[in-house]
Amino acid sequence: MIALSGGEIADRERITDCLVTSGKARLAGFAMNPPLRRGANVKKLPPLDGKTRAARLAEAIEGLEARPPVAGGLVIVHCLTLEEAAVVRESGGEVWHVYGAKPSALVPIRRADRMVNIGENSFGHVLSPLEALSEYLVALGLAARSNAQRRARA
After folding, report:
1. What gap in Å lies between CA 58 and CA 44, rounded to an integer?
2. pLDDT at 43 over 70
3. For 95-135, how does the pLDDT look when each residue is reduced to its tens digit (9 = 90+)?
4. What 8-state DSSP symbol labels residue 53?
5. Can you tell me the distance from the alpha carbon of 94 to that of 3, in angstroms, rounded to the nearest whole number?
6. What is the CATH number of the domain that holds 93?
7. Assigned domain for 39 exists
């Protein structure tokens, strides 16, 4: 599970499209619309209800686990609150931060979080979506192998 935070709405949507259409890991996108859509002119937005958004996200994750899997993983397009990020992390997922002019004011960047952007030219710590996905899948594979080895020894 991958949650995208920060950046522009359009950038998060393009990164999700890139990940889902790549075919790697059979990913599906999940989006609860952010409070402001493209083209809207609003000077002040109401505060986000993080608890409600996190509860809806947890329901969606639980619903996916209850059915036969239709996807190998989920990309949460708009991780806008600390509560949503906590649900993702508690479910074993990662929060990726979209590098650019608008970092999230509500979801702090943690040391292990990945930085991604849609462009080709970037800094060494900022990955393209497919590079970040490859690193994530390798890390998942290593963790699964380590857990299997521990169970075999027990």
Report:
1. 28
2. no
3. 999 998 788 888 999 998 999 998 766 677 899 999 999 99
4. H
5. 6
6. 3.40.50.300
7. no
Classify 63 as helix, strand or coil.
Answer: helix
Give the 3-state secondary structure of residue 148. helix
pLDDT in the model for residue 36: 59
Show the tokens assigned to 93. Answer: 């997922």
Q: Is residue 123 part of a domain?
A: yes
42 domain residue, yes or no: no
Containing domain of residue 15, as a range? 2-34+47-153
Q: What whole-number percentage of the chain has pLDDT above 90?
A: 45
3-class DSSP assignment, residue 29: strand
Match 């990662």 to its residue by tokens.
Answer: 94
Q: How confident is the model at residue 35 (pLDDT cuts 50, 70, 90)?
A: low
If one counts every other C-beta atom within 10 angstroms of the C-beta of residue 30, the result is 19
Q: How deeply is 64 buried, as exposed, middle or buried, from its count of CB atoms within 10 A (0-12, 13-18, 19+)?
A: middle
Closest among 113, 49, 55, 47 to 87, alpha carbons compared: 55
Length of the chain: 154
Half-sphere exposure of 98 (CA within 13 A, CB side): 25
